[in-house]
Amino acid sequence: MSFDVHPQASVRTGAVAVYSARDEERWVSEPAKNPRRSAFQRDRARVLHSAGLRRLGAKTQVVSPGTDDFVRTRLTHSLEVAQVGRELARYLGCDPDIVDTACLSHDLGHPPFGHHGETILDALCADIGGFEGNAQTLRLVTRIEPKVIAADGRPAGLNLTRASLDALTKYPWSRSEASTGRRDSGVRKFGVYDDDTAVFDFYRAGIANGRKCLEAQVMDLADDISYSVHDVEDAVVAGHLHLSEFTADARRAELFDITRTWYLPETSDAEMDKALSRLQAAAYWPAETFDGSRRVQASLKHMTSQLIGRFIGAAEAATREEYGWEPLARYSASLVVPEQTGIEIAVLKGMATLTVMVAEDRLRLHDIQSAVITELSQWYAEKPGRMDPMFAADHAEAADDAARLRVIVDQIASLTDHSAWALYHRLKAGEGDRL
Questions:
Q1: Final residue in a domain of this structure, among 211, 244, 278
Q2: CA separation (Å) from 57 to 74, 157, 352?
Q3: What predicted TM-score, i.e. pTM, was given to this entire model?
């Protein structure tokens, strides 16, 4: 995969910004085990070996896992995000391991059934602060994952460094502070639940509310790029999306409407039309209908590589133009994404949303998925001892009904698509008492 970067970038790629001892601090102090590994390399290893990351292999990205052998899951998506993010970090001078950790972690909190599962759980938690995949990610890495226990017995999750926790926080604010903030799939976006503010305050101490570090911005862009490019590729291969259909005016209008609703509320049709036309005019935009042949598959893969290079190169060049060529990290700079690039990315995301996420057959499936999560939540409430042992223990120690519901949601969010379906079918078959 080629990235269009400034010629001077090769001079600087080996230079990494200096991080302070404070950046390396952990919520629970622990000695370094191997002086040959940095604190940030240890963070990456902890995420890479976590149970939460493995579970992403059976969680929906856009197309459900198991529909074919090609489709991306949350795990393969996260690995691709990490590769894109790590490259951009290297060009800018951020520590690549911090960005890699953030990219690998960014979807850990997402429940089964993709964004629709998130919407169902958010409604279930309406009276206890809601549910949000990014806030659940923070909860998982700082509380749920069984790695470090503090001296007082409280769980500390993976106990990542301050810099890594900050980098994986895409929305550094609480639900109450996000009342007018971004929404995706109807879910208000925020990064921390009220009962996880202690660790949030630890790693965000002294930082202005809502300000994101450069590493988090790199992760966010890498996620958007991977989402836009790879989900289009998946939709094409699965037969849901035909790139040629967006030459028709009516179909373009549908695309612009969904893109505005989901991603770009302030952007005009004219601006999106120009962005789409630029993409379609690119020499690598496939001209042939996808037929599954090796040649056409190679053409589609070439497009994805070139688009990634196009978007990474634009952000790298714009950021360097703003801040020069010294290594950049933490709060020394902000990532600069040209407006045209942002619109192109959003239009691609809109293609996958229009043809897959809001397609009629997908909406019918949503009704069944709602029943699965709702009935599982009721069953766990009636039989909390049936939860995984660590969640059952958390439930037993919970102080009130709100805390108990949060634990039930922790359990459900940890399930994969397959395990949620399997458990639901066993309940429907009357096997609940034997589980």
A1: 211
A2: 6, 21, 20
A3: 0.91
